[in-house]
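Q&A log
Question type: sequence-to-structure
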Amino acid sequence: MLCQGFVEVVLLRLGRQLGTPFGSAFVIASAASYQGHVAMASDSYNHRFLVVWDDTRTVGATSIDVYGQIVNPDGSLEGGNLAINTSADVQSSPAVA
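Response status: OK
Response body:
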């Protein structure tokens, strides 16, 4: 389950039975900017997730960018947020599969 907010992207892992929460919700992105249009893909082999979103943390330097984060099976974050596309102009509504 993903929640979009003005300041952060939060992930809550759900169990297989009836969508019962598995652990607590945790923050993936908390830059002091807007993050939205969240998408997620799973890696069934390594049991990790890639979460991507629109991000305005560099609005003065570029525009709306796309960032991402790899989430490990235990809910820990692999490194920091990844700048996926920060070129000039607007990059928005990312999708992953």
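Response note: The mean pLDDT is 80.
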